[in-house]
Write a structure and sequence with these properties.
This protein is an all-alpha fold. It has 2 helices and no strands. Helices cover 38% and strands 0% of the residues. It is elongated, with a radius of gyration of 29 Å.
Length: 79
């Protein structure tokens, strides 16, 4: 009989690795459900702007970059 195909049960170390990987996966899935990506949380609430403050506050300045119109959109806009 060929001994290469004999059943070998998993060792204790392999079972621990499988259990650890399973536990990490479960914890990560629960964290993804609890703390949704893009969710809004109360632990970061920006404060109203102080005098002279323009960034990292409610009512602050938003920097907007204006780009010139491209040739294709400029040509199609003319009547």
């Amino acid at each position: 009989m060929n001994d290469d195909n004999r059943y070998r049960p998993t060792s204790r170390r392999e079972r621990l690795k499988i259990m650890a990987a399973t536990l990490v996966t479960v914890v990560l899935l629960w964290l993804a459900l609890i703390y949704r990506p893009g969710g809004h949380y109360d632990w970061y609430m920006p404060k109203p702007c102080k005098a002279g403050q323009t960034k990292d506050c409610i009512g602050g300045q938003a920097d907007v970059m204006l780009l010139p119109a491209t040739a294709a959109s400029a040509a199609s806009a003319k009547p």
